[in-house]
Amino acid sequence: MVRSLWTGASGMIGQQANIDTISNNLANVNTTGFKRMRADFEDLLYQTVKTAGTPATEDTVVPVGVQMGHGVKLADTQRNFGQGSPQNTEVPTDMAIIGDGFFRIQLYDGSYGYTRNGAFEVDSDGRMVTSNGYWLLPDIIMPEHFLPQTINVSQDGRVSVMVPEIDPEEPIQVGQLELYRFPNPVGLSAIGDNLFKISQASGDPIPGRPGYDGMGKIYHKFLEMSNVSVVREMVDLIVAQRAYEFNSKTIQTSDNMLGTATQLKR
Fold first, then answer.
1. pLDDT band at 1 (very low <50, low <70, confident <90, very high)
2. Handedness of CA 84, 89, 91, 92 (dihedral sign)
3. How much is the pLDDT for 260?
4. Any idea where the domains of the chain sit in the sequence?
5. Which residues, other chains included, contact 203 with Cβ-Cβ below 8 Å and sequence gap of 6+?
6. Is 257 helix (H, G, I), strand (E, B) or coil?
7. Residues with Cβ < 8 Å from 158, sequence gap 6 or more?
8. Mean pLDDT, residues 107-113 taken together
9. What is the gyration radius of the CA atoms in the chain, in angstroms?
């Protein structure tokens, strides 16, 4: 009887974590480059009351044992790195990765972050940076007197711009983008600001030129939107809510049974 109380409680705790994950997905439905997460669960330890294969007689054994479960626990929150829909923005510093790969970002402490968010800007020094001022690597630095609306990025990552003082007719190349992929991208650690960091599970980054060796292509003046499906998340939310209610019902039923047991003698 008491076991069912704790088993139901573990189910409620697990479904609360599931709803927390779904709510984070829905909150980031319009976050550029966001990848949806999924809560995975696994069952807890089992109490073996009778072991299968125990001798029943001299010639027979028990074919099926008796095991009592103790509920569920959260195993992991796995991120889905499926492709998000590209959206045309007409902003000359916007870029979307169609395919595999991440942009490399240098953080303030000198370490590296990786992102699928291609919403970049040009700072006062002409350097291409994120909205938080982190540097895009390799460095893309615009020359003086460049024309911002003439920034162009090819699918293989070549960045060029028009500078009338240097050549009034032909654009000049100012940099070459690189992308980075990982043996196990779901092992990356999210640190916020649309950034990930490497971990022991993700493996070391593999650099490459966009469009080559399995890397994705760069689509200029596009942004990759979140891969969250609102309809799917709402269905998952309904299922999680009902599962939460079912587990609470087992606790209520166990409590009623305990109440019945205490009233047997009056």
1. low
2. positive
3. 87
4. 2-81+228-262, 86-224
5. 182, 183, 184, 187
6. helix
7. 173, 175, 176, 177
8. 95
9. 27
> Cα separation of 178 and 105, whole Å?
11
Q: 228 pLDDT exceeds 90?
A: yes
* pLDDT one-digit tens code per residue, 131-170: 999 999 999 999 999 999 999 999 999 999 999 988 888 9
**Strand-pair partners of 40:** 76
Place of tokens 């050549």: 167
Residue 95: exposure state from Cβ atoms within 10 A (0-12, 13-18, ≥19):
buried
Please give the model's pTM, rounded to 2 decimal places: 0.88
pLDDT at 185: 95
In what helix (H) or strand (E) does residue 173 lie, and over which residues does it extend? strand 167-176
Cis peptide before 138 (omega within 30 of 0): yes
DSSP 12-67: HHHHHHHHHHHHHHHHTTTSTT---EEEEEEE--EEEEE-TT-BSSSS-B-SS-EE
